[in-house]
Design brief:
This protein is an all-alpha fold and 637 residues long. The protein contains 27 helices and four strands. It has a four-stranded mixed sheet. The longest helix has 45 residues.
Length: 637
C-alpha cells in the first residue's frame, strides 16, 4: 500500500468509524429506554403475559423519544467537548498522559539519541520535525504519535523506550510511528478518543446517581438506585462498544506500520528487537498513568492489560508481529538491560556521513521523475543517510539556533532578508522597532552564514526550525508572523522561495496556533478545480522552462498527463501570489487518490526539458507539502 492508498484507507476507516459509532448510539438508546421503562413501570401489564404485541401496545413513544434525545445529547455533547479539548493536537494528548517536552538543548544521552533519530526520520521523509515528549515515569517500552497533521504531530516516548532500546531498535519504533503520521492514522486516533468519551459519559452519570442515593431517603429510592446501577452497566456496555470500534480500525494498521518501519530502515532487526525486548521486559509495554486506556489504540504496543483488552485487542499478539517481521525468530525473549549513554555517544562520533555532490545531469533528472511518486510519504536507508548528511552540512551555529525557540525566529528572518542595501535596511529597521528584544543582534550575527547557505539546505533547515517555533506563545507567534510577512513584502514582490517558505511554514504553524481549521473537506474530482490547475501548471511552466520555444509543448505534455481535456496556459502577468495561494489551498482539498495525477503533471513540466535544478526540486517539494504529500529530499540533490 503506497502513501495515497494509505491516506484513502484512513479516510475510509473514518467512514467506518462513523457507522460503528451510529450503531453504538442506537444500541445505547434502546438499552437505556428499556431500562427506564421497566424500572418506572411504563411497561406494566398487570397479570397479562408480556408479549411483543403487549409491548407494542403499551410502548410509550414520547418517553422513548425523550430518553433517546437525552442519550444523544449526552453522547454528542461529551464527544464534542472532548474533541474540542483535543483541538490543540498532539501536544494536548502527550501532556494528558503526563509527558514533558524534551528540550532541544538536552544533555541527557538517551534524550539526545531520541531527538536525533526523530529529526533524521522527519528530514528523510520530508515532514516538519515533530516535538518529542517523554513519559518520564513510565518504565514500560512504548511510544505513540499524536496530532491531526504532520505539521502538529508529536512523538511520545516512555523512559523505558529511550533507556532500554539501542539506537537501531529506537529507529525501528520511531519509523513505525512515522508510518502513522504519514498515513493519516493520527487524525482517526484523536477522533476515536473524542467519540468514545461521549459513550462513556452515560456510565459516569450512573455512578453519580448511585452516589447521590447514599444519603437521604426517597420513596422512589429503589427505582432510582436501579436506574443508577443500570446506567453504570450501560456505561460498561459503552466501553464494550468502544473497544469493539478500536479493535475494528486498529489491528491491521499496526501490521502496516510494522511493514513500513522495515521498509523505511530496510532492516528488520531494529523493530523486531524492540518487540522482543517488550516480551522480555518485566513491565512489557504497560503504562501506569490513569489516562492510558483512552489512547490504547494509538500506542506502539498494547499499553493496557485487562480482560476486555484481551478480547478486543487493539494490537496483534506480540509473537505474531515478531514472526511476520522475523520469520527465523526462535520464540525466545531476551533479557532487557539499560543501554549505556557513553556507548551511544561514542557510536555517534564514529559514524560521520560522507558529503554527496549535487548531481544535475540528464540521467539523474530522468531517475528523479520516474521514482518521485514512490518516495512521497516514505523513506529509505539512503534517504536516512542523506538526512544525516544534510544536518551535518548545515553549520553548527545555525543548527543550534534553529533548535532554540528564540534562535529559530532569527534563522527564518535571515532566510528572507534581501541583499539590496536599501531594502535590507528597511527590513532590519522593522526588526529593531518590532522584533523581540535582542532578535536584531542575533539576525546580524547569523546573516552572513545564512546568506551563503546552499539552496538544498534551506527546506531542511525550515523543517528543523518548526518544532522550536511551535513552542512560542500565541502572542510571540503572531508577532513573528507579522514581522515575517513584512520582510517578505518589503521589496514589493515575493519570489518563489519566499512563497514556498510561507506556504510550508505558516500552513503548519497556523494549524498549531488555531489560525486555520484542522477540519478536512475532500473534493471528489479534478474537473471541479480545473481553473486552479491552470494557475499552478502555468506558474511551473513559466518558472521551470527556460526555452520559450518548448513552453507550449511541455504544457501540452502535462495536459495529457492529467487527461482533463484542454487546459489554459495563462500568461505570466495573470499569475499572482494571491491567486497561486488560492489555487494550491483549493487543490489541497482533493481526495488522496486524485493527487498523484496532479503531481505527475507537475513533474512532467519540471522534467520536460530532461533537466532539473535544486531550485526546481525545492519548488516541487513545496507544492507537494502544501498538498499534504510530504516529499523527501533526494540523495541526488
Amino acid at each position: 500500500m503506497d502513501f495515497f492508498q494509505a491516506q484513502d484507507a484512513a479516510r475510509r476507516n473514518t467512514a467506518r468509524l462513523v457507522i460503528f459509532f451510529t450503531l453504538a448510539v442506537l444500541s445505547l438508546i434502546v438499552i437505556t429506554n428499556l431500562l427506564v421503562m421497566v424500572l418506572f413501570g411504563f411497561l406494566e401489564s398487570g397479570n397479562e403475559a408480556i408479549t411483543l404485541s403487549v409491548i407494542a401496545d403499551r410502548f410509550n413513544w414520547p418517553v422513548f423519544l425523550t430518553i433517546g434525545a437525552f442519550v444523544v445529547l449526552v453522547i454528542f455533547g461529551g464527544s464534542a467537548y472532548k474533541t474540542m479539548a483535543l483541538s490543540g493536537g498532539g501536544t494536548v494528548v502527550a501532556e494528558s498522559l503526563g509527558g514533558r517536552l524534551i528540550s532541544q538543548n538536552t544533555t541527557d544521552f538517551h534524550e539526545r539519541k531520541a531527538l536525533n533519530v526523530v529529526e533524521e526520520m522527519a528530514l528523510a521523509s520530508g515532514t516538519p520535525v515533530p516535538l518529542v515528549y517523554l513519559l518520564e515515569n513510565e518504565q514500560g517500552i512504548n511510544a505513540f504519535a499524536a496530532g491531526y497533521t504532520p505539521g502538529d504531530a508529536v512523538i511520545g516516548l516512555t523512559r523505558g523506550t529511550i533507556t532500554y532500546l539501542t539506537r537501531e531498535e529506537l529507529q525501528g519504533v520511531i519509523a513505525h510511528e512515522f508510518s502513522h503520521i504519514l498515513h493519516g492514522d493520527m487524525r482517526l486516533n484523536i477522533r476515536l478518543i473524542g467519540i468514545l468519551h461521549g459513550i462513556l459519559l452515560i456510565g459516569l452519570i450512573g455512578y453519580f446517581v448511585l452516589r447521590s442515593m447514599r444519603r437521604g431517603s426517597n420513596k422512589n429510592a429503589a427505582p432510582i438506585m436501579g436506574l443508577g446501577l443500570g446506567l453504570l452497566v450501560i456505561g460498561y456496555a459503552g466501553t464494550f462498544f468502544g473497544n469493539l470500534i478500536k479493535a475494528s480500525v486498529s489491528r491491521q494498521r499496526e501490521f502496516l506500520a510494522d511493514a513500513s518501519a522495515v521498509q523505511f530502515t530496510r532492516d528488520n532487526s531494529g523493530i523486531a528487537g524492540a518487540l522482543k525486548k517488550i516480551g522480555g521486559h518485566v513491565q512489557g509495554s504497560g503504562l501506569e498513568t490513569p489516562q492510558a486506556p483512552s489512547m490504547s489504540h494509538a500506542y506502539f504496543s498494547t499499553g493496557v492489560n485487562s480482560f476486555m483488552q484481551s478480547i478486543f485487542a487493539t494490537h496483534p499478539p506480540l509473537d505474531i508481529r515478531i514472526q511476520r517481521i522475523d520469520p527465523q525468530w526462535d520464540g525466545i525473549f531476551p533479557p532487557v538491560t539499560q543501554e549505556p549513554g557513553e556507548e551511544y555517544a561514542s557510536t555517534e562520533q564514529t559514524r560521520p556521513p560522507s558529503k554527496e555532490e549535487v548531481v544535475k545531469t540528464t540521467a539523474a533528472g530522468v531517475i528523479i521523475a520516474s521514482q518521485i511518486l514512490d518516495r512521497i510519504g516514505s523513506t529509505s536507508p539512503e534517504q536516512l543517510d542523506h538526512a544525516v548528511t544534510l544536518v551535518n552540512d548545515i553549520p553548527q551555529n545555525i543548527r543550534d539556533a534553529a533548535r532554540d525557540p528564540y534562535g529559530a525566529r532569527a534563522v527564518i528572518y535571515c532566510l528572507v532578508i534581501n541583499q539590496q542595501p536599501d531594502i535590507q535596511n528597511k527590513q532590519l529597521q522593522q526588526l529593531i522597532e518590532f522584533g523581540d528584544s535582542g532578535i536584531f543582534e542575533l539576525v546580524q550575527k547569523l546573516l552572513p552564514t545564512l546568506t551563503s547557505l546552499e539552496t538544498r539546505l534551506r527546506l531542511p533547515l525550515i523543517d528543523m526550525a518548526t518544532p522550536s517555533l511551535r513552542q512560542l506563545s500565541e502572542a510571540q507567534y503572531l508577532l513573528f508572523k507579522k514581522n515575517l510577512l513584512f520582510l517578505m513584502h518589503s521589496d514589493s514582490r515575493i519570489d518563489l522561495f519566499e512563497w514556498s517558505l510561507q506556504k510550508i511554514l505558516l500552513r503548519h504553524l497556523d494549524r498549531v496556533f488555531g489560525q486555520i481549521s484542522t477540519g478536512v473537506t475532500r473534493l471528489e474530482s479534478l474537473k471541479t478545480v480545473k481553473n486552479h490547475i491552470n494557475v499552478l501548471l502555468s506558474m511551473l511552466v513559466h518558472t521551470c522552462v527556460k526555452d520559450e520555444a518548448e513552453i507550449n509543448a511541455i504544457f501540452e505534455g502535462a495536459e495529457q498527463e492529467l487527461g482533463l481535456g484542454t487546459l489554459v496556459l495563462l500568461p505570466p502577468e495573470q499569475i499572482t501570489i494571491e491567486n497561486l495561494d488560492i489555487a494550491v489551498d483549493k487543490l489541497a482539498l482533493l481526495k488522496p487518490l486524485m493527487k498523484p495525477q496532479l503531481l505527475k503533471a507537475c513533474l512532467a513540466i519540471i522534467n520536460g526539458d530532461k533537466k532539473y535544478s535544486v531550485e526546481e526540486m525545492e519548488l516541487m517539494r513545496a507544492i507537494a507539502s502544501v498538498l499534504d504529500c510530504p516529499l523527501p529530499p533526494h540523495p541526488l540533490t
